[in-house]
Request: fold
Amino acid sequence: MAITLAGSAQQRQAAGWAVSGGILLELVLAGRASVTGKHLELVDTTPTGDSLLDSRTALIETWMRVVASAG
Reply:
């Protein structure tokens, strides 16, 4: 059985991806992250002074550590 998202659920999901992409773009522009192909690298984890970007950098760093230790 295939499950598809209804209109408003799809819009919320799309908005979430858009916000995530915007945060990632801000981190790249701030020189904190690098994206090459399908690979993400945190190149500088020093605080940016923006609480949203700094908290997401910490989450990405934790996620990358977990993924690396699982592989």
About this structure: The first helix runs from residue 7 to 29. The chain has a mean pLDDT of 91. Helices lie at 7-29, 51-70.
